[in-house]
UniProtKB/TrEMBL annotation:
<feature type="domain" description="VTT">
    <location>
        <begin position="30"/>
        <end position="160"/>
    </location>
</feature>
<dbReference type="InterPro" id="IPR051311">
    <property type="entry name" value="DedA_domain"/>
</dbReference>
<feature type="transmembrane region" description="Helical">
    <location>
        <begin position="140"/>
        <end position="163"/>
    </location>
</feature>
<dbReference type="GO" id="GO:0005886">
    <property type="term" value="C:plasma membrane"/>
</dbReference>
<keyword id="KW-0812">Transmembrane</keyword>
<keyword id="KW-0472">Membrane</keyword>
<keyword id="KW-1003">Cell membrane</keyword>
<dbReference type="InterPro" id="IPR032816">
    <property type="entry name" value="VTT_dom"/>
</dbReference>
<feature type="transmembrane region" description="Helical">
    <location>
        <begin position="12"/>
        <end position="30"/>
    </location>
</feature>
<dbReference type="Pfam" id="PF09335">
    <property type="entry name" value="VTT_dom"/>
</dbReference>
<feature type="transmembrane region" description="Helical">
    <location>
        <begin position="175"/>
        <end position="193"/>
    </location>
</feature>
<feature type="transmembrane region" description="Helical">
    <location>
        <begin position="50"/>
        <end position="71"/>
    </location>
</feature>
<keyword id="KW-1133">Transmembrane helix</keyword>
<protein>
    <submittedName>
        <fullName>Alkaline phosphatase</fullName>
    </submittedName>
</protein>
Length: 204
């Protein structure tokens, strides 16, 4: 994949980075851990300007968050609450669970978006609850931009410094992404089991 990403950048330049970062938010198997260090390597060869690379990568990353954000806005809290009350039983999900999650995001959403944009595995997923909770678009863009810029700067700098060994960045970050994914799955499973147990206790 790294070779293909490099070919896209060699062919399209900054436009390629922009496109790849937009797609990365919608298609997680194309991770920024591959794109950004590769862009940093391209800058180290002198074919791209490292500052412009970071700016373009940040713009692409932020633009890529908007589809999921607006999907969340389209559904909204009330629609999800109504759906959970009607169909969520098999997921042990109730309308009040949606409201509780929404209240949490209303309180901690900006921090979640800011730091979440720097966490592999959940970077793009946070756009959905941000939209569902109807976080103001300006607030969402501000925190998403800051988090995305910090993430892009770190990975581009790593690729720039490592040069031809830029692919080592992915080797270090990919295990972290897998651990986070596993923890999320385990957390969801634990929540599911506990909700089932709580429902059984309520009916006895």
């Amino acid at each position: 994949m790294a070779e293909w990403v490099q070919n896209v950048m060699d062919t399209l330049g900054y436009a390629g980075i922009l496109l790849l970062m937009i797609v990365e938010n919608l298609f997680p198997p194309l991770p920024s851990e591959v794109i950004l260090p590769s862009a940093g390597f391209a800058a180290s060869r002198g074919s791209l300007n490292v500052v412009i690379v970071v700016i373009v990568a940040t713009i692409g990353s932020v633009v890529g968050t908007l589809p999921l954000y607006y999907i969340g806005r389209a559904f909204g809290e009330e629609k999800l609450v109504a759906w959970a009350d009607k169909h969520g039983k098999w997921l042990t999900l109730r309308g009040k669970d949606i409201r509780r999650a929404d209240d949490w995001f209303d309180k901690h959403g900006p921090k979640a978006v800011l730091f979440g944009r720097m966490i592999p595995g959940i970077r793009s997923l946070l756009s959905l609850p941000a939209g569902i909770s109807e976080m103001p678009i300006f607030t969402f863009l501000i925190y998403s931009t800051i988090g995305s810029a910090l993430w892009a700067s770190s990975l581009v700098a790593a690729g720039y410094i490592l040069g031809e060994n830029f692919d080592q960045v992915e080797h270090y970050i990919s295990p972290v992404s897998r651990v986070i994914l596993v923890l999320l799955v385990i957390g969801a499973a634990v929540w599911f089991v506990r909700r089932k147990q709580a429902q059984k206790a309520e009916t006895t």
